[in-house]
């Protein structure tokens, strides 16, 4: 796993595919969401196939900043150091999530880089696309109906519209969808 | 080039990529539009790369039926046979368009099939996706701004929303855009 600054265009002879990945809403860190895993597996099986040396995967995990801290029910913030610790905990959890994707890529023999950013996922993904200039962005999608989308919003729709590179959205398969499709 | 009926899922071990292709609005048949060619070249260079045996390309060309016949200014329709001839002419011109893509695929060594359908391009593409079940649909896009899109409409936006498979839209590069971006 390399720092974001090392993502340069030196490897321009490879096809560079960026994947937006997030944690499972049901199981939490370090588990990847079903849609992230679907997008990853689709990329491996349908695009990279046996040509492992022709591609480089760029895993981006965006963490939504927890402004009020209520998310982190076990923590008591008594000093500035406590906040630093909470940030460090986020970072460690995000790192464990990325580890799953990096390890699997490594096992298969596909080059990769992975990094974490804080912010609004859709905005950060588009910003990172602009900076890193991948050949393709692959994002998962929960496959929500129009009624559910109104409340949840979809990162993928925003990326298709605004990212400055080709974008492909991979829907979860029906059999992988949890009881409440808004989950995971 | 094979008939549409032969497009079966027997080659399921290959990644099957459908490409929607159309003629140049400026140069007419048999020239392919800039956006069709961009989508094709992107697929070859960024996805297929050297792995020519891992992919099969499915070229679909949709012809918009010319209801009043005014398009075909050189023709005089005096009998039902004349209409049959006009239809045949369409078919021949469409075939020449597909020939460009099939020949280039053949030269590179990528398996392919190509066929022509009549109808509203966006509806027909989605219908053919449902029937043929490709792993990915690649469509070109003229990269029109929101103002131009209102009048022209984009097939790619419709496909992203409605086709039952992953869809990737490839925009023309800025230097390939003709003076009037609605062209080609």
General description of the model:
The structure is a homodimer of 184-residue chains. Helices cover 39% and strands 18% of the residues of chain A. The first copy, chain A, is built from five helices and five strands, in the order E-H-E-H-E-H-E-H-H-E. Chain A has helices at residues 34-48, 80-108, 121-132, 146-152, 155-162; strands spanning 15-20, 55-63, 111-118, 136-141, 167-171. A five-stranded parallel beta sheet of chain A has the order 3-2-1-4-5, with helices on both faces. In chain A, helix 2 links the parallel strand 2 (55-63) and strand 3. In chain A, helix 3 runs parallel beside helix 5 (155-162). The longest helix of chain A is centred in the middle third of the chain and has 29 residues, at 80-108. Chain A is globular, with a radius of gyration of 17 Å. Mean pLDDT of chain A is 84; it is low at 1-11. Chain A binds chain B through residues 15, 42, 46-47, 49-51, 54, 135-136, 160, 166-171, and chain B through 15, 42, 46-47, 49-51, 54, 135-136, 160, 166-171.
- How is the main sheet of chain A built? 5 strands, parallel
- As residue ranges, the low-confidence spans of chain A are 1-11
Order of helices and strands of chain A: EHEHEHEHHE
* Distance linking N and C termini of chain A: 25 Å
What is the β-strand count of chain A? 5
Averaging pLDDT over every residue of chain A, what do you get? Answer: 84
Oligomer category: homodimer
- Report the helical percentage of chain A: 25-40%
Find the structural class of chain A using helix and strand composition: alpha/beta
Give the largest interface. Answer: A-B, 17 and 17 residues
Radius of gyration of chain A: 17 Å
Portion in beta strands of chain A: 15-25%
Question: What gross morphology of chain A would you assign?
Answer: globular
In spatial order, strands of the major sheet of chain A run 3-2-1-4-5
Tally of helical runs of chain A: 5
